[in-house]
Design goal:
The longest helix has 15 residues, at 135-149. This protein has helices at 21-28, 62-65, 73-76, 83-90, 100-113, 119-125, 135-149, 165-171; strands at residues 3-6, 9-12, 47-50, 53-56, 69-71. It folds into two domains: 3-76, Ubiquitin-like (UB roll); 83-162, DNA polymerase, domain 1 (Orthogonal Bundle). Strand 3 and strand 4 form a beta hairpin. With 177 residues, the chain is α+β, with helices and mostly antiparallel strands. Strands 2-1-5-3-4 form a five-stranded mixed beta sheet.
């Protein structure tokens, strides 16, 4: 049985060790924030952190992930307080939202090693595809998250989960109750 740590919780998967990590996370661990996009490693919708490095979970088997630390979008921040999540909302770099978890994971991995990335470094480190075309806002959001991580800026972003629609509308003017 493959064993790994997922979002700081040790887990054993009663699945074939050759099962893609993506399906183990989604189907067995019920962590559905990691998305299935293309299944061939091109789009980045399935991105997770493996020992702090962004990896495509559709391309990794449970056997390859054995003994490693996996962080999904659910483990990045339960209350949406991670600077990347806050900046994506503040810069309106989310449209349909399907690619957002993978983008947030890629951006978090980049900012963990470089809190002041250039536009070129962002484009290189965040290879995710977005059909809605948020790329210019995405670069601004990642740079803004970096400023927040360096304590140069406070981001007024997403309301905490569980907030009522009416209260959310007061916090985020683009939402109407």
């Amino acid at each position: 049985m493959p064993s790994l740590t997922v979002n700081a919780h040790p887990l054993q998967f009663r699945m074939d060790p050759q099962t893609p990590l993506l399906w183990a996370l989604r189907d067995a661990a019920n962590l559905t924030g990691t998305k299935y996009g293309c299944g061939v490693g091109d789009c980045g919708a399935c991105m997770v952190l493996i020992d702090g490095e962004a990896k495509r979970s559709c391309m990794l088997s449970l056997a390859e992930a054995e003994g490693r630390n996996v962080t999904t979008i659910e483990g990045l921040s339960r209350d949406r307080s991670h600077p990347v999540q806050q900046a994506l909302v503040a810069e309106q770099a989310i449209q349909c939202g399907f690619c957002t978890p993978g983008i947030a994971i890629s951006a978090a991995a980049l900012l963990a090693r470089n809190v002041d990335p250039s536009e070129a470094e962002i484009k290189d480190a965040v290879p995710n595809l977005c059909r809605c075309g948020v790329y210019p806002r995405l670069v601004r959001a990642i740079q803004r998250a970096g400023r927040a991580m360096r304590d140069l800026e406070i981001i007024d972003g997403a309301p905490a989960p569980g907030i009522s629609s009416a209260d959310a509308a007061l916090s985020v003017p683009a939402i109407t109750p």
